[in-house]
Amino acid sequence: MSWFLYLLECNDGSIYTGITTNVEKRYATHVSGKGARYTRSHPPQKILAVFEYDDRSSASKAEHATKKLSALQKRALSNSLI
Question: What pTM was computed for the model?
Answer without folding.
Answer: 0.93
